[in-house]
Amino acid sequence: MGLLVDGKWQDKWYDTDKSGGKFERQASKFRHRIGGSDGKFAPESGRYHLYVSLACPWAHRTLIFRKLKKLESHIDVSVVHPEMLDNGWEFGDYPGATGDTLFNFEFTHQLYTKVDPDITTRVTVPILWDKKLNTIVNNESADIIRILNSDFNALTGNYDDYYPELLRSDIDEINELVYHSINNGVYKSGFATTQEAYEEAVNALFDALEEVETRLSSSRYLVGDTLTEADWRLFTTLIRFDPVYHGHFKCNKKQISDYPNTFGYMKELYQVPGVAETVNFDHIKRHYYFSHTMINPTQVIPVGPSQDLMSAHGRENIGK
Ligand SMILES: N[C@@H](CCC(=O)N[C@@H](CS)C(=O)NCC(=O)O)C(=O)O
Which parts of 118-181 are beta strand (E)? Predict the structure, then answer.
């Protein structure tokens, strides 16, 4: 784990001293869209590449959108090794990892310094890479899923819309709660270095999960009966919760399987055609338990839980 400072890799853990033990996430640096009026990044088949970790919930969102929006033949993917240690994300041999299929780099930080040799940044995935200009288009998953949702529609003919105009304000509102208290909330709980910071995060997380559970008792999805990006953004945290966050990040007031509506909803999303293929529990567990040695110094990976995610979700009549 580390970061680039003036283009040099430094092996440093997150600095929580300045923030009273709180984990604070850095803002993403590359925020371009595809198909903008300047014509810089045109929507072309085969031009763009996604760098992902199968373990990472933020990268996972982009893989789901690539699948749902039928972009697999237009945007290829490199998958990093699940272990993220002294050199940050690495490319290497591991079942399900691909190596860097564009440059054969060893480390993900080499992509960032290829774009800017003097860059100062954390080295995160996902990365949407432009093979033509050899640069990063975007490294913010919230943007990348919107790019995949709409910027290639004319190319693919797929107009399925997970951020429909009419629902945008409702989607934005629930995204706020889910992002701060749940998606990032599990990290704020797990990476807190004081009791106070941990309790603040974990209590906000479970308050938000209760709110989601109540909402899902009368609504099929987060925003009524339409499956939107808000659901996919929540899903990638929910699917990691019982195997990882509950134990490793000490988010243990309850498990997702204790919330009947949320658990059924998570199974329904998992069962959407193509989605289960984007979920790799081996990468997920290996990444967290093996990489965060300050939380789990033995690097022992728990065997459970055993959950049948293909069992009946029972959500057909909710909200009717
Ligand atoms: N805001 C970014 C966050 C991405 C992110 O933090 N990814 C994690 C993996 S789950 C990462 O690469 N962390 C490395 C680091 O922070 O040094 C997004 O949503 O794309």
Answer: 121-122, 127-130, 135-138
